[in-house]
Structure formats: structure tokens, C-alpha cells
Fold each of these.
Amino acid sequence: MNQQLPQQMSQPLSNAVMVRDLEVRIPSGDRSYAEPLLIVRGLDLTVPAGQVTALVGANGAGKTTTLRTVAGALAFSTGTVEVLGTALGPARVRPPLGAASMPDISAYPRRWTPQHVARLRERVVPGFDSARFEELLTTFGVPHQRELRRLSRGQATQLGIAAALAQDPQLLILDEPFAHLDPLARTELIEVLRDVMAHEGHTLLLATHDLDGMERFVDQLVVIAQGRDVLSGEVESLREEFLLCDLDRTDVETGPGQPFLGASSTGTGTRALIAVDDAVGLPAGASLRRPDVSEIVTHVLRAARTDAPSLRRTHR
């Protein structure tokens, strides 16, 4: 039997997740005496209800820590976290009602099969639908009777996604869902997620490195660097906000306060991202075009290596 949602959930929410000034520290490995590591620092995050929001950033930027905090799996030090209309306490370590994330398949006995996983989740996860789980496994091509230890890494990822989707959550939280998937499996997963998002009342928050063709799937992009959000906005709006500029190397000055973001050598010149409003007065030989999402993220992350706080203040 499905759990009843809190009273405040009876009204439609404009935002599924609201995070403000979040700080998260995690233990420093197995050294209990060491100072906890500050992974997320002053992060703000808004996830509009009914949309797909993607967190992107370099390895170690704080994406997974942010997702685990929103999913109720990690305590946080300071800030506020509101999920589906309910504020999470700093010490909360259980999933918010109505939210689901991918289970850690490696935590299950390796001789189990997906059917063992289904039977367990039926008992412990409110609203888990075994028929839906099996249907998704078939769609993804994951063998129902194969032992977990014999699944490929891609199949294990698909199994975890199927387990989360079988809860029919209002908020689905996925960490690197396209990791280890071949092109066909990636396409099939996006098709399943599109179908889920086509039904009212679903929100998807994901972290990914795979931005190929995501303009037509992701609604909002949040770039994280050094534990901070340095750029966020609707994908189409961001593409309208920036231009990709190719020009002679001698015409570019980079550093704090300069309009060029993430300048890099092209062999014959320099390529950099620039805000549309800053493009006035460029050298006559400059070549401009609209960037795709991957290019925006690449140049913003390159700029954030040296000036993340300044970038955040300028382009939030």
C-alpha cells in the first residue's frame, strides 16, 4: 500500500527541490581523527517541478554529494534543504517521501538475481511495483534470472534505474545514469525517461558527464565547481546568453574581471566563451557562433578552475 503524502503535497509545487547555502562535510576516509572534508560549500539549487535538471561538473566537484544530500542519505552541516515541500533536518538520513534514487546494487549479495532484489524491495520500499520493475528489466534487456555478479556494469546501472522507477516517484534522483551504457542502451533509457516525464507530476534530477544531444532532453542545467554552483539556468536561455568566440591569440586577455571564459588554444588562435552583452567591440576578425551545451560547460568549468567564486557572482 502506498504511503499517504503529507498534507502540504496536496497543492502543486512550483519547485521540487530548494537548496540554499548548503554545506556538506564527509569523513576523511577511514581516519576518524582527521578533519572532515568540506565537499559542498554555499551551494544553491532550485529544481523546478515537472522538469529535467542536470548537474554537471568535473570529478570531485560535489555532484554526488549534493544528490545524496537531497535524497536524504547524507547529513549536512549548514543551509536549508526542502524536498517536495518538506524541509529536511541536517541530520536526516532517510529518503524524503515521494523521492527515489538508484539503489547501490553492489550492496546486495552477489549471488542474488534481479528477482531477489524485487522481493526485498516489495517488503521494504513503499509503493514498489514488481510488475513495473520486470517490465523495465525486459525493456532494458537485463536478464531476470542472472546473478548480480554476472551482470555487466551497464546492466547493473539499468537494474538500479529500474528499481527506482518501479516506485513511481514524484522526484527521481539519478547519479550518472548513462555511465557504462552503450549507445543503444543510452537511447532506450532516454526514451523511458521521456515517457516518465511526459506524465504530470514527475521531476528528474540527475548528475551526468554525458551531454551529447541533451539540449532536447534537459530543461535546466546547473554547473558545479569546487562545491559551488557557478552557473545555472534553462538550457535554451543559456545558449542565448553566450557566444563562442574564435579570434587571434593576441586579442585575448584572460583572468578575473575579463569577459572571456575558459580560453583555450585552437592551434591557430584562441577560442573562448563570452557573454552576448560583452561581445560588443570585439576585434574585426573575431568569429562568433552559438555554443552547444557541452561547449558552455567545458569553458565555464575551465574558467572556474581559477576563479569559481567570481564566476558564480557574475553568472548565477
Amino acid sequence: MNTRENNPAPSNPLGIDGIEFIEYATSEPLALGALLERLGFEQVGRHRSREVVLYTQGGMNIIVNADPAAWAGFGHEVQSTVLSAVALRVRDANAAYRHVTDLGAWPIPTRAGAMELNIPGVHGSGDTIIYFVDRYQDFSIYDVDFKPASHDRKQTTALAGLHFFGVVQAVRQDRTREWIDFYAQLMGFSVLPEGQFFGILPKGTLLASPCRQFYIQLIEPPQGTEDMHWDEELIRLGFGTPDVLAATALLQQRGVVFVDRAPTQVCERGALTQLYKGGVSFELVHSQR
């Protein structure tokens, strides 16, 4: 007798279609910008009224926000660099915003000034923000708020096939289940089977986006570190590449330094950069786009 498994189709209530941009808030924009350029990013625009710079590589966009007003919502004086926001490409930004806030997500107040584009968003981990963007094809959000670095802005080619792979999020002890529910119920993320992991840091819980274009890794504090201060925050950005060793060699030639000692030696599965000024690090993960 033939039987059919009852496997429901993956749900994508927001129509998520990847990451539009990653935002860093920093008090040291020049140092962070120089690091991004070593990673292959190119400065392509400046905000028309704020101290904000746009960097692009291939299909990836990174915003470096050094505007003092960016720190108002953090509630403390920032002396470093933090991964402050993730913008998701969605089918309809306003509909996505209404969907998640109706389910209990906390909206962020409108931050757009005069003649600026308002991007809807909600609170994420710690002081971070999750934005929703639906202008990412023929027209983009950068056409409104940013002054291009040149009149003939071109599409940059990614080094070694680099692309956004995901973000690593620190969560407090025994809070993983709550964050799984947050991403699953509001946005359609799903937990990968136990034992399935990517890269060289196989700890925590991996959540796959409903579009299967990126992942979120949830990490609780390690055992035996109960006295260590552990904030809930986004701590690292991961880049996918089809050939980690080739990408690592190319980036090393450009001045990027990787950790090469146990248990995080560079290998075919992945690589981890050193911790740069301001507390910034990046991870490479083997990934066929």
C-alpha cells in the first residue's frame, strides 16, 4: 500500500526574498569602511542629510551609520561598532509590517525626516531593528535617500561569489525557544534538523528563512560561563561562497586576517576573520548560491 507523508508546504507569509541590506551603527565609520573595502565592497553612495554611507558588492548592500541620532534608541553611549539592523526583502512592506505587528511584534517609531523614505520596521534582538523593503528591483530605496558616488553607478561583481549567508544572534540562557517562536510564527522561518550545520562553528540552533536564501543562528551562553555578561544582540554576519579556500586566499591578499588555530582553522567548510577594531568579525561559509 502506498502512503503519502503529510509534509505541509513551507510557509512564507511575508513573501521574504532574501536580505536587502545589513546596517552597522558605528562611532568609527572610516575604520569600518576600510575593512569593508578589503572585503570587496565599494562605497557607492552617501545619505543626503545624515552621516550614513552605502557600500555594495554584487547583490549585497551594507549601510554604515555614524549619525549620532542612530544611537538614540540604544539607550547608552556607544564606543564601538554594532550590527544594528537587518532589512528583509518582502512582497509588500506595509503588509509585512501589519502582519507581524498584529501578531505581537513591537513597531519602531517613524525615523524618516523631511523628504526621506519611511521604511517600516519592528524591534528585533536587543536594540536591533528588522526592516521590511519591497523596492529592490527596478527601483530601490537608495534612489530616494542616497546621493550616488558617481553618475554611472554600476553593478559591482562579488569577489569569489560572496553573498549574504546569514547572521548570528546571541540569546540569553533558555531563551532559544522564544526566539524560534518569534521567527517561525511571525515570518515563517523553520528550524533545521539537529546535527545539520554550516561553517566551522556548529553550535546553537539554525533557522532557515522561508525563501531558503539565508539563515539565522541562535547561540546561548556556553556552559560554565554563568558569570559572563551576555547581551541579546546580533553578533556576526556570515558570507556564503562556493569555494572557501579560494575566497580566503583572495581576501588575505587584500589584507583580511583569518583565525587559523583550533578549533576555527580555515577549511573547506568555512573560515572566521579576526575580531577587528570595534568588535567586528565576519564568517565565510561554503554555500552554492
Amino acid sequence: MSQEGYDKLVAELQRLEAVERPKASAAIAEAREKGDLSENSEYDAAKEAQAHLEDKINRLKVTITEAKVVDTSRLSTETVQILTKVEMTNLTTNTKMSYTIVSENEADLRAGKISIKTPIAQGLLGKKVGDEVEIKIPRGTIKLRIENISIA
């Protein structure tokens, strides 16, 4: 993943631990003050929200621990790889399209960033400028020609 993507994950983890966790604890304490816990739906909801928060924090910690930050200065534009921007032409419709291939956590279609695990990214990996590829996608098969590869 990119350094930017890694930094965003770390910031999100810090926010969850510093802001959201105390809020969840306060909600439980407030609900506990309302009396009998056996019939206190507010208490049950607050405990469930806290469990979801802790699960999210734990998943984020695992993602951060397992993350590998890619040094973009060492990337080549010879072939398509993670963190490269690929400009291509859809040979069926003759339309231009451009995507940056990123880690799953950084994917954002609106920003033109697709996950390395998508069929399109998988079909492009290792290809060079001028290569024509056929990629199976959920709606059928798409034919693309790679026009340019650059570092994102």
C-alpha cells in the first residue's frame, strides 16, 4: 500500500481508540445508571456497539501490522503493478479510461483507484504499453489496450 494509505489507517485507528472508545464506554456507563440491566435495552445496545467498535479496532490493527508500504521511487513503468496509473482504451466502445491500482483498503472508484484484487487489475498486472488484453468481468468480457503506465 502507499504511505498515504498507511498513514490514513493509522490516523483512523488513533481516532477510534482516542475518541470512539471513550464514547462507547460513556454510553455503557450512562445506560448502567438507568437501573436493572436485565431489562435495559439501552445497556444491551451500548454493549453491542462497543463490541463492534472493538472488532473494528482489532481488524484495523491486523491490517496495519500486515501492511507493506511500497516505495514508489523504486517502481518501474515498464509493466503494470500496484501503485501504477494505467491509461487504456476500451477497444469495444473506443472510450478512454484510467485507473490507479491500489491495495484493497485504498480502493476508491470515484477517485479512479481500483483494488489490486479486482478482475480488471488482475488482468492488467504485468502487462506493458501497447498490450491488448481481454478480461472477464461480471458483465462479460472487456477488451483493453494499454496506452500509458505512470507512477501514481
Amino acid sequence: MTQDPLRRFSVEGKTALVTGGSKGIGAEIAHVLALAGADIVITGRDRTGLQETSAKVVAVGRRCLALEADFRTVEGPVSAAAAALREFGAIDILVNNAGIARIKRLLDAPLEDWEETMAVNLRAPYLMAQGIVPKMIERGYGKIINVSSQAGVIGIDGHASYGASKGGLNLLTKVMALEWGPYNIHVNAVCPTVILTAMGIENWSDPVKAGPMLDKIPLRRFGQPVEVADLVLFLASPASDLITGETILIDGGYCAI
């Protein structure tokens, strides 16, 4: 391992695939990884958002491949993984960030919400890994970061399908780490609290709604997208080479109570 601390936190020369990279946390992750030296593949359904993220990556001197893909389908992640490998030959860092939330109480939630949530939040990371990991095994190196949620660790009212999908993703992370660790592939999950993306701001700007949630967070604030992206960078870099199979909360202490 290099003695240079800056290089230990670098991903220079690596290629990272970030799903859900057209906006929010995914767009910030793609930008931060590019700033740290990686070429980037992003996927998403929002063509305009993909173009905006791609422009930010290119502006810092890195390559960017933007792929339109619908992760509600089986074909979406399968075709995205194949296209990324055709372009770059191999992916060093896979960030399974794409996700949806259908917030309804159990007795009010239609089956369609459950199935769509499981498809995007749990099946798609499984399929992406199946597509990308064989080349990682062949090369003896890989980093996988699954973007989960504190709702996958504790029960939250109205989050039945979302929480179940993220809880499943956390356990999938552990099995991936167990099976692929012998090939020098590190797999971890990050579990954020409310993050103030554009959607987060829209959903949590009402003090009446936000107050009770903030009261449960010792730091008394929500997170910023760059704070999640920085944790992902750490897990993608050589600095985290002894960490695998972990679900890391980034929640201001919410789950410490």
C-alpha cells in the first residue's frame, strides 16, 4: 500500500459505474469519483439529467458513458452492464445507487408498489453484480458499494416495501462479500438518513414534518449528497482495503438512540 495518504484516497485510473447517476446522490457520487480520478459510467431514465451529470464529469477531465436504462425491467440492468463492459472492458468500482421509494402504510400499499420497489432496489443490484463481477474475478480486484438506507436497518412507518428492499440489499451485501472476498473484491453498503437532494428538500422542507425526525438525530440535521459521496469514495479507494461486508450508517447518530 502506498505511503502517500492522498493516493490512498484516490481512484485515479479506475472506472466506476454508478447506477441512478442522473440526479441526486448518484449524480454527486459520479462527480466526486471523477474528481478523485475515475472514468465514469452512469445509468438512469432521465436523459437530461444524464447529460448534466456527464457534462460535470467531462469538465474535470474524465471520460463518461451515459446509458439510458429502466431498472424496473430485467433487461435494463442486464443491458447496462453489458454496454459498460463493451466500452471499458472492465469495471473497477460498481456503485448500486439507483432506487425508488413508494411510501405508504402496509394496508394502503398496492402490490405494484412492492414489486416495482423490489425490482429496482434489490433485483437490479443483483443483476448488475452478476454482469460486472465475473470480469472483477478474472482480474482479481473490485469494489462494490450498495447504497442502502437506515430504513433497511430499523423499522420506519410507511416504509414497508422500501425498508424490506433495503434490508434485503444489506444482507445481499454480506453474501457478496463472503463469496467474492477471496477474489479481492470488497463489498459494502452505506445506509443514509434523509439526504437533502432536490427531492429530499421537497419532501422535508415542512418543519412540522421534519421536526420529529430531526429530534431523533443527535446531530440535529439531515445529510448532504456530498457527504454520502465522500463515504462512497472512501469505500471505493485503497484506504478501505480491509473493510468488506459492512453496512455503514451515515445518519447523524439516528440509530445510536
